[in-house]
Design brief:
By secondary structure, the protein is of the alpha+beta class. It is built from three helices and four strands. The protein has a four-stranded mixed β-sheet, with helices on both faces. The termini are far apart. The model has no long low-confidence stretch (mean pLDDT 89).
Length: 121
């Protein structure tokens, strides 16, 4: 599965092709006329996944993420999905709490390992 950060290397054509796929839906939240959050919903058969969800820091804590996720779930249901998945890292405590509060349950935990590469002095 390709991570969101890898999309930064996609060409404009690749991005356009991806977002024109009828299985991909982009939801954008606006506040006072400017975008403050987005969620990308991807459908595959009877399953859907939120490939990305994010809210700009200054707009967090206002229910925007909750609204985006609820709207993604509603859209997934109307498109025939029976299951919605969303991913988060264990340090994203706000996201994890939101997902639990909205009725999501842990399906799989992935460990991330790190190694400090700074030279010792």
């Amino acid at each position: 599965e390709e991570g969101w950060a890898l999309r930064l290397k996609w060409t404009d054509e690749a991005l356009e092709e991806h977002f024109q796929d009828p299985a991909v839906h982009l939801l954008v939240a606006y506040r006072e006329g400017r975008p403050v959050g987005m969620a990308e919903l991807e459908l595959e058969g009877r399953e859907a996944s939120v490939a990305y969800i994010g809210v700009v820091p200054e707009a967090r804590g206002r229910g925007i993420g909750r609204t985006l996720l609820s709207e993604a779930a509603r859209l997934a249901r109307t498109k025939g999905a029976d299951l919605l998945r969303v991913r988060a890292h264990d340090h994203e405590t706000g996201a994890l709490e939101l997902y639990r509060n909205l009725g999501f349950s842990l399906e799989e935990a992935v460990a991330t390992y790190a190694k400090e590469l700074r030279a010792s002095r």
